[in-house]
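User: Here's a protein and a ligand (magnesium ion). What would the complex look like?
Assistant: Let me lay out the input and then the predicted complex.
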Amino acid sequence: MLARLEAHVAEQRRFAANASHELRTPLAISKTLLDLARTDPTCDTGEIIDRLHTVNTRAIDLTEALLLLSRADQRAFIRVPVDLSLLAEEATETLLPLAERNGVTIETSGDVTPTIGSQALLLQLTMNLVHNAIVHNPPEHGTVWVHTGVRPRSVVLTVENTGERLTPQLVSTLTEPFRRGTERIRTDHAGVGLGLAIVKTITRAHDGTLTLTPRPAGGIRITVELPAAARLT
Ligand SMILES: Nc1ncnc2c1ncn2[C@@H]1O[C@H](COP(=O)(O)OP(=O)(O)OP(=O)(O)O)[C@@H](O)[C@H]1O
Ligand SMILES: [Mg+2]
């Protein structure tokens, strides 16, 4: 019990240190750019504004991800009946243009999949998983499968994608905050490394389980299992 408490405190400390470090980076870059604009009369102001805009957007994304993480962790949300298959449909539709740009095909399947929870958080969870499955996929000819299904006492959302072969050891670390996977995967997507940590926290807040498994042919299969709504409605 004491060991678990100590591990939890150590984890919180690590998280706070990492979050501060991640937030400091865009602020430090902004300062450098502002100093440059102030001291170098020959600098290209238009370019500096563009770079400041990019850095600022990244800082906002990071802060929003941190807020979302803490909101989900506090379980401060209203629980309503939610159909996971509709969320899967919505996430896929929203992310279809991104998939097309990346040459990735998305296949969805599954019938009505009722659970109870926060519609907004479960949509965020689905979006994060589908977004990852698109951007962390080999460029061109990648495939993503999104499936929702009902089990006797639970419901499942499975998001699977093609990609590089990954070891179970590496896959087991990917839900840690600020973990950005393998350097070997070529990706233009410079994420903040909180997408899967958010998925994990939202799943836990809904009393569910999250499983990440490397696919033998490459890529990952991610399963979110949540309590079925039937017994509550
Ligand atoms: N579906 C996937 N297939 C292959 N690798 C993945 C997949 N999902 C996540 N990863 C790996 O896990 C890492 C962590 O994912 P996570 O979603 O937490 O962060 P991110 O995508 O890098 O940034 P963001 O916070 O913007 O989502 C990724 O950088 C990537 O290397
Ligand atoms: Mg991500």
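Summary: The pocket of magnesium ion (ligand 2) is lined by residues 128, 131-132, 191, 195 (CB under 6 Å).
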